[in-house]
């Protein structure tokens, strides 16, 4: 599991990260209290993985400017939350050599053998209860609220015999909740289910949470089909 000082500082209420814009200067200034507060998000993520009985190795993706005190705060919170190990990875500055300690930690966890993996819910649980189980146990929500279209879809899919499929939640990556503005480890919220889609071939049901939008499918001729390597080892077809 990868964490950064900057991201956890943001979850602690400091600065903003906006794609395509320069980094907020506040994120480059030492703020151990913000890191510790934001690390509640990391703790929740670790606990969520441990629900499945899988060991967690936390990689602190280190950048120049991250301080020892901030890294120490992350390590303390992660270990308390149940991480097997916490390793500072310096590959950003030092390349592969900077990730050697992380590789050793992951290898050590792998050598312990396969964990006693546990599923979150049984296949025969009704679709709505599967959705609510993820929302409550993984996101920390109080429950879910379905829009009428979602309720109708769930009934239809179960009537058609797809009720045993797992659910694949479509939600923002910017929050544990459905709302990207809720940072850290939010509590007391309910998750709105706007729509539910069936991917019968792939074998799962996808609830759309809040305002989440899905990406369009591939065109009839994906660009990747035109990419190749010529006889001189050059990549062609990118443009």
Plain-language structure description:
34% of the residues lie in helices and 15% in strands. By secondary structure, the protein is α/β, with parallel strands linked by helices. The chain folds into 2 domains: 2-111, no CATH class; 127-209, Formyltetrahydrofolate synthetase, domain 3 (Roll). Strand 5 (190-199) and strand 6 form a beta hairpin. The radius of gyration is 21 Å and the shape is globular.
Main features:
2 domains, globular, 3-stranded parallel β-sheet, 239 residues, 3-stranded mixed β-sheet, Formyltetrahydrofolate synthetase, domain 3, 8 strands, alpha/beta, 7 helices
Say how many strands there are: 8
Rg value:
21 Å
Count of alpha and pi helical runs: 7
Please mark out the parts with pLDDT under 50 across 5 or more consecutive residues, or reply none: none
What are the SSEs and their pairings?
Elements: E1 2-3, H1 5-11, H2 32-51, E2 57-61, H3 68-80, E3 85-89, H4 91-94, H5 100-111, H6 127-139, E4 143-146, H7 148-159, E5 190-199, E6 204-209, E7 228-229, E8 235-236
Parallel strand pairs: 1-2, 2-3, 4-5
Antiparallel strand pairs: 5-6, 7-8
Helix pairs in contact: 1-2, 2-3
